[in-house]
Structure formats: structure tokens, C-alpha cells
Design brief:
The protein has 182 residues and is mainly α. The chain has six helices and six strands. The strands form three sheets. A two-stranded antiparallel ribbon has the order 1-2. The longest helix has 23 residues, at 54-76. 30% of the residues are buried.
Length: 182
């Protein structure tokens, strides 16, 4: 599996395909058409690879950055950037993913544009709706993952306990142990 899905919604998981966003050399998880196809399949948005092209990777990254700009504006309490609003709205007006009933259940298929349209519509609902108040950024300094904090009491600190939470707790433990020895 090439991608992770810890955020509680696919549009935020999509934003997370640029890892360690603030680092000098962030890790791009959508660097090739194959990685974009993998994301759609691993997210279970599509059951068949859409056959992404290099040009569609560029379009997907542009949409991802527009979504991030909107989410960051909500996190900071700023007005939504007009360019990013226009980009997301343009994609949101696209055709939906195709659903078909098969003897085995539901089959989801579509193009990259249809997958991006679904992500844009989800972004519109998230950023424009009540759940925007649940947006949080991971407390681990090296991580820039944004997630929905649906925890009881809304005190979740990390995008995922098994990764960032464990790293922070282990680092704190080592620091306490080192301080006690020194």
C-alpha cells in the first residue's frame, strides 16, 4: 500500500499525499500516474484504476493544493482564498463516479476527473459545513497532516496514534529518561 488514510475523510487524506509539507524537501506521494491510480484504488473510491496521465497528475496536485489552501484558511480563521474556491468549485461541478450494481455488490468506476470531482464535492461540504470546526493539524511538528477530530471531547492531538502519536510519546519518554540520568 502506497498511501495512508488516517484523516476521517478522503479529501483530507488526499491533502496528505504531500507529506511533511513544511520540510525543505516534502515527500510527494502523487509523483507518477501510477501513484495517482493507486490512491484512487487504495482509498476505495474506485474499484478499477482510472488510467491517469502525466497531465492529470498535474491537475490532481493543483486541486490538492487548492483543497489545502481552503483547509488552512479554515484552521487559521482566515477568509477562503478566491482562487482556491474557484478551483474546487470547478472540479465539484464535474461528473460523479459511476456506481453499478453487480452480483458481487457495488462497482465504482470512473476517470481521474470523476474521482477529483468527488473529492472537490466532499471538500465543499467539509469546508462550507459544520464539520469545519472539527479540523485539526497533527501536533507532531514534522507532520502536517490535517484531520477531523471526532473524538469525544475533541482532544485528539495526532493524525494517527500508531504513527505520530507513538513517535511523540516515545520521544517524550526518551527525553524524560535522559533528563533523569543526566
Amino acid at each position: 500500500m502506497n498511501h495512508a488514510f488516517p484523516c476521517g475523510t478522503l479529501c483530507l487524506d488526499f491533502v496528505g499525499t504531500l507529506r511533511a509539507r513544511r520540510n525543505a524537501a516534502p515527500l510527494e506521494k502523487l509523483a507518477t500516474p501510477g501513484l495517482l491510480d493507486d490512491w484512487f484504488m487504495e482509498s476505495e473510491m474506485l474499484d478499477l484504476p482510472p488510467g491517469a496521465s502525466e497531465a492529470e497528475v498535474v491537475i490532481a496536485v493543483q486541486l490538492r493544493e487548492a483543497i489545502y489552501d481552503l483547509v488552512a484558511a479554515r484552521l487559521d480563521g482566515r477568509a477562503l482564498p478566491a482562487e482556491s474556491v474557484a478551483e474546487v468549485n470547478l472540479h465539484a461541478s464535474g461528473l460523479p463516479v459511476t456506481l453499478r450494481l453487480t452480483p458481487d455488490g457495488v462497482m465504482r468506476s470512473g476517470s481521474v476527473a470523476q474521482g477529483l470531482a468527488a473529492l472537490a464535492r466532499e471538500t465543499v461540504q467539509l469546508v462550507g459545513g459544520d464539520e469545519a470546526a472539527l479540523l485539526r493539524e497533527c501536533a507532531r511538528p514534522e507532520c502536517t497532516q490535517v484531520y477531523l477530530d471526532r473524538s469525544r471531547g475533541h482532544r485528539r492531538e495526532w493524525c494517527a496514534m500508531r504513527t505520530c502519536g507513538n513517535r511523540v510519546k516515545a520521544a517524550n519518554y526518551r527525553a524524560r529518561r535522559h533528563a533523569a540520568q543526566g
